C-alpha cells in the first residue's frame, strides 16, 4: 500500500497543470523575504500619488493612507503595543480598517480582525484566545464589546465612526446609511477616539526588525473543519507569497497599475483581506469601498470608476442575476470576474453566461492558505473546476482514513504544500498535529475538503468533510444534492444538512427557498420526486423544509453551521 501511495504522490509531483500556465509564467517564483511594511514603503514610493480608495465619494491617495497608518502605529506604540502583541479589529470595510491594519503591522504587532456580525460571546472568545488588549471598534458595534469587557483582558477600545471619512451632508447619510452615526464616546475608562489619536501622533513610529518567515502579520480566525474557531497564524512571508504568486500567475493584471476593483467582500475575511485590500495597497490599485452591500450602488460605482476586476462569491452572483440593472451592465469590459469562498453552482454559472455573457473564473483557498491555492488560469477557464494550483503550490489527494495518497481521478482529501500556508493554529497543538504531516520531503496541510484532479490537472470540489452526511454507512455529499436542487426551475436557493438519527446515522434534510412565483405552491413531494429522478435512493432528502431565505455568513456564503445550530442538531 505504501508503494502505491508513493507512486500516486509522484504523479501529482509532476504538476501536470503547468502546461496551462500562461506563456512565461514559471512553475515557481521567488518570494521576497521582506516584511509587509517594507513592501508597502516600496509601493508608496512608486504610486503614492495615485488614488487608493474611494469611500462613498471620498477619495484618498496611497500616500495619504500610508501617512495615516504611520500615525496610527505611533499612537499604538505610545499605548504600549510592542512586537508580537495582538490588536483586534472590529470594523466594516472603511478607510479606518486599512489604516489600522497596516499601523499594527508596522510595529511588528499582529492584526486580529473579527466579523462585525459577531455576538458578544464570539467577540469575547477571540479577544481572550488571541490575548488582545486593544480593540479598534466601530461606534455602532461597541455595545457588544462593552457587554463582555470585564470578562476579557481589554485595556483600551479605540472608537471610530464611518462618518469620519464620509461626505458630511445629512442627505448623504439618509440615502446611504439611513442615519448619521453618533460620534459620542462611551463613558468607560480605556475608551479612546480614533481621530484624536491620529491628530496627536506623528508619522514616525519606531523601526521594528521583523523576521518575515517567523513573525506573524495577522491572526484571522476560522472555524476550520471541526471544533471552536482557531486563529490561523499568517506570517509576513505567507502574505508576500500569495501576492507574488498571483501577480505572476496573471501577467495581464496590475501591469501599468491601472486596475480598479470593488471592495465589497469583508476585509475581516481572508478573501477580502488578502486578495482585495492587500493586493490593492501593494500594487497601486484603486478600490471602491462599501461598508454594506447595496447592489444598485455597486453597479453605479462600477460604471463611474471603470472597474476592471470583480471578486465575489456564488450567492452574490445569484443576487446580481435578479437585478435588472446588473443584467444591463456591460460585464464584458471587465478583465476578470473571480469567484471563491464557496462552490458556484452550475445553474448560477450558466445563467450568468446567458444574461451577462462574461465567464466567472473560480478559485479555491482557505484562511489557512492566506486565501488562495488554486484558480483558473488566463489561458483556459474550465467551467465547474476551481482551476489549477498557483506557482510554488504543490497539491495532492489523500485518503483521509488510510492517510495514503490516491491516484489522479479519485476523490479524497485535498492536501497542499506551499509558502502561503500558515505557520499553524494559535495555541492549538493538537489541531496542528492533526492538520500537518510530512511526506515525500514536504510538509503538507490537510484542508478537510474532498476534491479530485482530472487528467488535465484541473481540480474539482466535491464536499467539505464537515458537511458530509453518513446515512446507513453511505457517504452522502450535501453539495451534490444542492446542485440537483438548484437545477429545479422552481427552486431559488437550497441547502442540505444531516439530521442525527440513531437508526440510520443521519437523515438528509433539504432547506429550500422557492422562486417567488412558486412560494406556497412547490410541494415536498415535488422536491423528492425531482431528487429521485436525479439521485440514488439513499441521497434523496427524507426531510424538506421551505423557507423565505437561507442564513448567510457576512461573506455571503450559505451558513450550514448556523442551520445545524438553529435546529439544535449538532454542537460545534
Write up what this structure looks like.
This protein is of the alpha/beta class. Among the domains are: 1-24 and 391-466, Luciferase, Domain 3 (Luciferase, domain 3); 57-234, Rossmann fold, CATH 3.40.50; 472-566, GMP Synthetase, Chain A, domain 3, CATH 3.30.300.30. It is built from 18 helices and 28 strands. A five-stranded parallel β-sheet has the order 4-3-5-6-7, sandwiched between helices. A five-stranded mixed β-sheet has the order 13-14-15-16-17. A hairpin with a 3-residue loop joins strand 26 (491-501) and strand 27. Helix 3 (62-78) packs across helix 4 (95-106). The longest helix has 17 residues, at 62-78. The model is unreliable at 169-182 (pLDDT under 50).
Describe the secondary-structure layout.
Layout: H1 2-13, H2 36-47, E1 51-55, E2 58-61, H3 62-78, E3 86-90, H4 95-106, E4 110-113, H5 120-130, E5 134-138, H6 142-146, E6 156-160, H7 170-176, E7 191-193, H8 194-200, E8 216-218, E9 221-222, E10 230-235, H9 236-249, E11 260-263, H10 270-283, E12 286-289, H11 295-305, E13 309-312, H12 314-321, H13 324-328, E14 336-339, H14 346-356, E15 361-364, E16 374-375, E17 388-389, E18 394-398, E19 412-417, E20 424-425, H15 429-435, E21 436-439, E22 442-453, E23 459-464, E24 468-471, E25 474-477, H16 478-486, E26 491-501, E27 505-514, H17 524-534, E28 543-546, H18 560-566
Parallel strand pairs: 1-12, 3-4, 3-5, 5-6, 6-7, 11-12, 13-14, 14-15, 27-28
Antiparallel strand pairs: 1-2, 8-10, 9-10, 10-20, 15-16, 16-17, 18-19, 19-22, 21-22, 22-23, 24-25, 26-27
